[in-house]
Amino acid sequence: MKKQTAGIHHITAIVGHPQENIDFYAGVLGLRLVKQTVNFDDPSTYHLYFGDKGGSPGTIITFFPWANAYQGRIGDGQVGVTTYVVPEGALSFWVNRLAKFSIPFQKAERFGEQVIQFDDPHGLHIELVARAEGEINEWTFGEVTPEVAIKGFGGATLYSSQPEETAKVLTEVMGLEQVATEGDYTRFKSNAAIGNTVDVKMVAGVHGQMGVGTVHHIAWRAQDDTDHIQWQQHVMAHGQHVTEVKDRNYFNAIYFREPGGILFEIATDPPGFAHDETAETMGSQLMLPSQYEQHREQLEGTLIPIEVRELESEE
């Protein structure tokens, strides 16, 4: 039986100042900060997670914020665009909200869908698309209510140095279905209601350089630990070099770099983000894995203070 991922689990990017990051994704876009922790490989750096009210797979964008770090370059070997999905009829609200905060944007159409395109403060390319599928996000923050709130990922656009090989990995390894081609882009879909649409730019371009304003990796969903091990074996059987299982506290992860240079992760849906905090208090305080808890005082003295705050209009 062909193995199929349900779709995108999370996307992780590198950004600049953490407060600017929070102000944009929570303050402007209205996402919930569901977890503030540290980069397990570099605990002097935050790892911030934003998503829907429950921190559901398919809604999570995560960031390593490095204040004053060098700017990257978006290009081949990366996720070029992260797309969020909002309820049908909500795009006019988002046009007005972006204008309210003086965020430049443009409207476009791709595969018959209207999209709003803009950049975050650190250079990441973002899109909003309206679709009926996907559960309503019950999180309310300021003027962003469930009727218009971001549900989670609509999908992503992949830039590849070998787009035909990347397309082959998406269909033959990850189990996505090729559904359409338009211009330079081919669209692939999974069977999930959210985080289910991936476009590949089928023409190679400039090679990307990792740094602020670039995506570090894209993660795909595994149902549980048993399914995860099966995915590891499945990826290996298709000739990809895959890592050992890594415990990321909120999910287990394996990694491989597909032929086009994009770092793929496969992450388990459980245990999720409420196992070390309550669902009500998620994201309200710094949570550390056990190996760093003894260094809490030192880390809290090193990390830049942050807060989730409602923003005033820039008008």
Features:
315 residues; alpha+beta; 2,3-Dihydroxybiphenyl 1,2-Dioxygenase, domain 1; eight-stranded mixed beta sheet; 6 helices; 16 strands; 18% helix; globular; Extradiol_RC_dioxygenase; cNMP-bd_dom; dioxygenase
Structure report:
The chain has six helices and 16 strands. The protein is an alpha+beta fold. It has one domain: Roll (2,3-Dihydroxybiphenyl 1,2-Dioxygenase, domain 1). It is globular. The termini are far apart. The model has no long low-confidence stretch (mean pLDDT 97).
Rg from Cα? 18 Å
On the 0-100 scale, what is the average pLDDT? 97
Strand-residue fraction?
A: 25-35%
Q: Any low-confidence stretches, pLDDT <50, length ≥5?
A: none
How many structural domains?
A: 1
CATH architecture group name: Roll
Main beta sheet: 8 strands, mixed
CATH top-level class: Alpha Beta
Pattern of helices and strands: EHEEEEHEEEEHEEEEHEEEHH
Principal-axes shape call: globular
Protein name: Ring-cleaving dioxygenase
Keywords: Dioxygenase, Oxidoreductase
Domain Cyclic nucleotide-binding: 74-121
InterPro entries: cNMP-bd_dom (IPR000595), Extradiol_RC_dioxygenase (IPR052537), Glyas_Bleomycin-R_OHBP_Dase (IPR029068), Glyas_Fos-R_dOase_dom (IPR004360), VOC_core (IPR037523)
TL;DR of this structure?
The chain has 315 residues and is of the alpha+beta class. The protein is 18% helix and 34% strand.
Helix and strand arrangement:
Elements: E1 8-15, H1 18-28, E2 32-39, E3 42-51, E4 60-65, E5 78-86, H2 91-100, E6 106-110, E7 113-119, E8 125-130, E9 152-159, H3 163-173, E10 177-182, E11 185-189, E12 197-201, E13 214-222, H4 225-237, E14 246-247, E15 252-257, E16 263-268, H5 290-293, H6 296-302
Parallel strand pairs: 1-4, 5-8, 9-12, 13-16
Antiparallel strand pairs: 1-13, 2-3, 3-4, 5-9, 6-7, 7-8, 10-11, 11-12, 14-15, 15-16
Keywords: Dioxygenase, Oxidoreductase
GO molecular function, one term: dioxygenase activity
Domain Cyclic nucleotide-binding: 74-121
